[in-house]
Amino acid sequence: MKEKKQNILIIGAGLCGSLLALRLGQRGYNVTVYEKRPDLRKVDISAGRSINLAFSDRGNKGMKLVGLEEKVKKLCIPMNGRMIHDKEGNTFMSNYSGRDYEYINSISREDLNALLLTEAEKHENVKIHFNKGCKHVDFENTTAEFKDYVDNSEFKEDADVIIATDGAGSALRKSYYLGKKFLFSFSQDYLTHGYKELSILPAENGGYKTFKNALHIWPRGDFMIIALPNLDGSFTVTLFLSYDEGEYNFNNLTTPEIVTEFFQKEFPDALEIMPNLVDDFFENPTAPLGTIKCSPWHYKGNTLLMGDSAHAIVPFYGQGMNASFEDVVEFDAVLDEGLDNWEAIFKAYEKRRKKDTDAIADLAIDNFHEMKDHVGQAIFQEKRKIEMALEKEFPEDYSSKYSLVTFNEDIGYREAMLRGRAQDKAILNMLSDNVISAEDDIKDVLEKVKEETEAILEDDRIAGLY
Amino acid sequence: MKEKKQNILIIGAGLCGSLLALRLGQRGYNVTVYEKRPDLRKVDISAGRSINLAFSDRGNKGMKLVGLEEKVKKLCIPMNGRMIHDKEGNTFMSNYSGRDYEYINSISREDLNALLLTEAEKHENVKIHFNKGCKHVDFENTTAEFKDYVDNSEFKEDADVIIATDGAGSALRKSYYLGKKFLFSFSQDYLTHGYKELSILPAENGGYKTFKNALHIWPRGDFMIIALPNLDGSFTVTLFLSYDEGEYNFNNLTTPEIVTEFFQKEFPDALEIMPNLVDDFFENPTAPLGTIKCSPWHYKGNTLLMGDSAHAIVPFYGQGMNASFEDVVEFDAVLDEGLDNWEAIFKAYEKRRKKDTDAIADLAIDNFHEMKDHVGQAIFQEKRKIEMALEKEFPEDYSSKYSLVTFNEDIGYREAMLRGRAQDKAILNMLSDNVISAEDDIKDVLEKVKEETEAILEDDRIAGLY
């Protein structure tokens, strides 16, 4: 390993950057972090909105790594399943797992980020500077140029290593792309849908206006809204909708009347508890949904991309933050290997990690279609019913794709994807061919699903598909 | 349709741009073409190298469209199959099809481009200007800025419509990407391999030093060389090799001795007829192999990407030029639909075409692995043997993936990919499970392959995989 006195510069003090700073601080490195936004512990930068995220087992590995599991638990609201709302306002709960102890959590981005910053700053060897945005990284000389947004000055920083955790719009990634100094594979893929955040405010008594411990979904085939609970009794609601296709879309929802009409027609039960809908709708921006992949993540032993800067994904698997925290865990494991230079460390990290972040990017797109559409279809509901029964009866022997991705944090995303997709294909085809049904003996179903899944994986392997 | 007097500006007079100019000239538009390079009919821009391409049935659709089929045929050298060279210098021929009348051709890029330019210029309403490179396209105002490389002047051109056929490094695509005026999905993916062009010169009597009517391949697992014949008796040889992996790679082939050692060890029979190897190797550049995809291809009704500028692919299916010519054929078919504005025309064209260019990009990557590796493996050779027999015995009922892509020009690349991959999977798995063999009754094999292929496609459909 490199000497502990090495100076590491981290660009971006969001969730990934602050966890990385904390962990590298614990390991004894001299860590300097520059963040373009103000310190969120001192300034309210959320414009009154309470933005939350799904936090689950892979993210929790990061919290365990730095000893924060218990503190983070206090910020969590468990969500045991999806509560589906149909057009008539009927609801039904679809658990995330047949195992009672498996659930995901809603957590405030701000509260969690604040905790990580505070813990990182407890280390003398970690310094965090705010209001300083990175403009450019000279990856050949391991220097970065910043602008100070308070006094408008510009300055350059030198380091032994620069790690960019500056999100989907990463300055380092842009420098890689525009620099044309090496072959840089890169993709940005936008969905035809965008999203807009809305809210369900707390009840007058401070309680929740709808069931607290669920991720609520109103699936409508080509669009949907979802809602996640906050500690203050509110829910953050997100509308996912096409920019320009279908009867209602972001381009034609231009007046209070048409927005209200759209919700009245499609989400009447949500509208009832969203009297603030029109204000939210026209105050909050519409944002795009994009996937970013790239390679290589590093330039020699000088610079490295981590978190969203290396692999931004769409939010439909609730794994964005969890994947970034897992990055830090994986990077930490590579540091433990005792490689003797940063280039070898960065190379080993990318080799170990990229296949998995590619997989979660693709899985997140899968789930976009599943959430807005499949959850409302009979054959997918029948599949879900069978999988819940399998997980309940055989908790040691069966995990659905969702469980493999979300709760089986000891296997990588890629393995979860391959096995999970094969299982889905096996069950859907056996249902379609009347080989299994939800009424069959469940032990018999388990055996058939396992056998068919193995056969699918083996056929793909022989055909050289992976 | 738009009025015929519309002014169309085409950026780039390569193979796609010159065919497009010719066709739009035939349709009566006022066409102006700007090309950054000198006129290849007047200046030798090949630096003494004779670069050839694979020309096949999809490309020929474009030639038929403009009435040039017979003229182009005179430039073609038929290649009936792959001639495989093993490490001991043994050769065996693997035909591209079991149908004798199906073959691909080697054609000179320069000769074909020259023909298309000359034919386009026969139209009064087509003007082609050389030495004028596009620097930037203002897609909101439908203007383009050029630099004249002869007098270094810069100028701006206005048009009703701008179509960019300026290749993988497209100025219009760069303007889309950097403009950030709309959500532009984009990817550039590089293989870890690069390529370098070499040559086998004609024999002293002007003849060919190895078999003329084949695409020669020396497959070696992780790397390969290929050779295509030229009309002058020479072959253009291409080495495909990793930049930095394996015992020999582009980064360590730095001296005449090691280059010769590499060829002596891996390609002894090729080396014998390549006395000019070392000169070629150190004179010619090493170039990367990249795939480019993007969307949207058009901005409103103002500008459109076509050919490599919209979808650059790796060369392993010999379909790059053919795909670009097919673009022109597809665009021409949309023009026939009588839509009443350019935005509708561009939208309809992309909707119809993009799924197919995405597919050929993926197929070309498939074939990279097939050519350098699979062609040398027993199970793939057995598959090929069976497919040749199927095509010979049942020419109306069976086409291999290669035939579907190359010779079935009436179906799109995407359909060819889905059916071809399913067939490959069916045959490889039935071979592996001893359900079929090359010795079985061929009629029986056909029925099993067809049935299994349909089952695979149906299983994928039920699982929602496409």
From TrEMBL, chains A, B:
Please list the cofactors this protein needs: FAD
Q: Where is the FAD-binding domain?
A: 7-360
Q: What does the record list as coiled-coil region(s)?
A: 428-455
Extract the Gene3D superfamilies matched here.
Answer: FAD/NAD(P)-binding domain
* A Pfam family recorded for this sequence: FAD_binding_3
Q: EC no.?
A: 1.14.13.9
Q: Does the keyword Transcription regulation apply?
A: no
User: What is this enzyme's catalytic activity, as reactions?
Assistant: L-kynurenine + NADPH + O2 + H(+) = 3-hydroxy-L-kynurenine + NADP(+) + H2O
Q: Which UniProt keywords apply?
A: Coiled coil, FAD, Flavoprotein, Monooxygenase, NADP, Oxidoreductase, Pyridine nucleotide biosynthesis
Per the record, the pathway is: Cofactor biosynthesis; NAD(+) biosynthesis; quinolinate from L-kynurenine: step 1/3
SUPFAM superfamilies attached to this UniProt entry: FAD/NAD(P)-binding domain
> Quick check: keyword Flavoprotein in the entry?
yes
Described function: Catalyzes the hydroxylation of L-kynurenine (L-Kyn) to form 3-hydroxy-L-kynurenine (L-3OHKyn). Required for synthesis of quinolinic acid.
What protein family is recorded? Belongs to the aromatic-ring hydroxylase family. KMO subfamily.
Can you say what this protein is called? Answer: Kynurenine 3-monooxygenase
